[in-house]
């Protein structure tokens, strides 16, 4: 596993905690999202160059703030139309940007405006709120830096062209807008979770970033049950991180993970969040997903998993979100409760919708082996291998093709 550099960890923690506040304050003062985001990125780039050499400053947030402020003044002095904003920066700049605690929240909702494509929402959130560089984001999402730069530029232009306001949504807009924000955060988390492993570690941990952002959102919107539920869901997945790979770097399925090494404190905290969310309102999609994850996390052994409860929860989730991936996961639970025959009927019905989804074929292969249809199962595994670029998943599926090795995989199983 990659060794963690304390300087890098301190830098990441500072960027995570502070740059959103600084960027939000700059947007509020200048009224220019593009300018504010560029100024913060300038400060981050300087920090990335200086801190590894000079060490992390005693007051890193103040250092970033001062660097961004100097660049803002330099930029605005070149344009006479910005005299009022320049005055705010030179005379009225607060030494502590926390005097405007909602700036980060407004910034998150601006980045995740529905007028922007989902990939643009994610990229802008990571840059403006988390302080990640274009290079870091591109590396995390396995695209070129040029591609990611174009994606971010297009998103910022869209903000200007569509007159997207820098504000919190009105009460009647909040449910839909919040759903966009939560979906973006979950994408960030899943990119980190599915891409984690000994060979794919990076200096920025997207799971940690997403958890931090969701925790921030929960502190700012403590009465929103789906925010709490998503935070619980992330913590439940993260609680199993230490057991997802063995010492050789191979992916370990849920059924084979050593539960004594799970983070049971995080599991208990997630349970508390779920109960808090349940008291606040009717369970939504993230609550149901978290409740399913909790059934797995709280079972003493794999054999003692409450599959009947999981099946019931998937039934409720299908009513809210009847998408094919949710129905695939329900079919997996159905197999544990009612056997392979009804499960295969469900999976056969999903073939057209999920033909390009590798976990559909991996799950189908597992069920085909239950019926002794080994050649068909091998063909299904080969199709799954063709459809995934994740090296850990490919290795697991390739091992199933070896005659002496019988393994099983499926959606949500690792």
List keywords for this structure.
mainly alpha; 414 residues
How would you characterize this protein structure?
The protein is an all-alpha fold. Among the domains are: 224-303, no CATH class; 306-414, Alpha Horseshoe (Serine Threonine Protein Phosphatase 5, Tetratricopeptide repeat). Helix content is 67%, strand content 0%. The chain has 19 helices and no strands. Helix 1 (6-30) crosses helix 3 (60-77), helix 14 packs antiparallel against helix 15 (324-338) and helix 15 (324-338) packs antiparallel against helix 16. Mean pLDDT is 83; it is low at 97-101, 197-203 and 404-411.
Strand content: under 5%
Number of helices: 19
> SSE order in H/E notation?
HHHHHHHHHHHHHHHHHHH
CATH architectural grouping of the domain at 306-414:
Alpha Horseshoe
CATH class of the domain at 306-414: Mainly Alpha
Q: Which geometry do the CA atoms define?
A: globular
- Going by helix content, strand content and strand pairing, the class is mainly alpha
Question: What distance lies between the first and last C-alpha atoms, to the nearest angstrom?
Answer: 19 Å
Full CATH superfamily name of the domain at 306-414: Tetratricopeptide repeat domain
CATH topology of the domain at 306-414: Serine Threonine Protein Phosphatase 5, Tetratricopeptide repeat
- What is the residue-mean pLDDT, rounded to a whole number? 83
